[in-house]
Design brief:
Elements (H helix, E strand, L loop, with lengths): L22 H4 L4 H11 L3 E2 L1 E6 L5 E6 L2 E6 L2 E7 L7 H9 L1 E6 L4 H9 L10 H4 L4 E3 L6 E3 L4 E12 L5 E12 L4 E2 L5 E2 L5 E4 L3 E4 L19
Antiparallel strand pairs: 1-13, 2-3, 2-6, 4-5, 5-10, 6-9, 7-8, 9-10, 11-12, 13-14
């Protein structure tokens, strides 16, 4: 077992105190600790299921929390695939098919467990969606699996692909269609109110709910912040 140090070992019952870190600290950590630390350091973030069809027509699903809004006109989303290995079935499939789906999920611990289990390395040819009993059909305009229980579903086509310096691949998808569940509300100004049990992810294995603190009017230097 790797015995390289981390600053929290043996401190579980101590009074918390500030910790200052630099490269000489984290380069000494064992790799799994370092990965968990930096993956979870940014807090909960958007998480969803990325779905594709294999060449044989098997519905594939992968958990993704490395996403970004690229553009609203045209609507595009970005997805970060970590340095390539042979296990990136979703990336291979979306390249082959030229399209994919992305689904924001809601619910409690059972829903979180089903989503999390989709991150397991199932054998090629076995559907993660079927294994978890997640009902699916096919998008109307995109040849990818659509998960019926999702709060928000995007059907996307592959638009761009960029390899970053560390081998991470940024995939940009153009949104071809969107499906909203009946508990997702769209206001007169276009603002989308998502359910408060929308699932977020922190790190590789911790799931959270979203909750609104408040929505403010457009900020201007001459006015104090005020709620809508």
């Amino acid at each position: 077992m790797d015995q390289r140090p981390n600053p929290w070992r043996g401190r579980r019952n101590e009074q918390p105190s500030p910790v200052n870190l630099a490269a000489e600290n984290w380069t000494a950590w064992e790799p799994r600790f370092r990965a968990q630390f930096f993956n979870s350091l940014g807090g909960p973030r958007q998480m969803g299921l990325l779905t594709t069809f294999s060449p044989a027509g098997v519905a594939n699903a992968a958990v993704f929390n490395q996403t970004l809004h690229v553009s609203a006109n045209p609507p595009q989303l970005g997805f970060l695939f970590r340095p390539l290995t042979a296990e990136h079935q979703g990336l291979r499939y979306l390249r082959a098919q030229g399209c994919f789906g992305f689904h924001l999920m809601s619910g409690g611990i059972d829903s979180a467990a089903a989503v999390h289990q989709c991150s397991a390395k199932y054998p090629e040819g076995e559907s993660e969606l079927d294994a978890q009993g997640l009902a699916w059909t096919v998008f109307d305009h995109v040849g990818a699996p659509w998960v019926a229980a999702a709060a928000v579903s995007y059907g996307l086509t592959l638009a761009e692909e960029h390899e970053l310096a560390n081998g991470t691949v940024l995939v940009v998808g153009s949104v071809a269609e969107v499906h909203l569940s009946d508990d997702v509300l769209v206001g007169d100004d276009g603002f989308v109110r998502l359910p408060e049990d929308l699932l977020l992810a922190q790190g590789l294995d911790s799931y959270h709910h979203s909750a609104s603190v408040g929505r403010f009017r457009y900020a201007q230097p001459e006015h104090k912040p005020s709620l809508l």
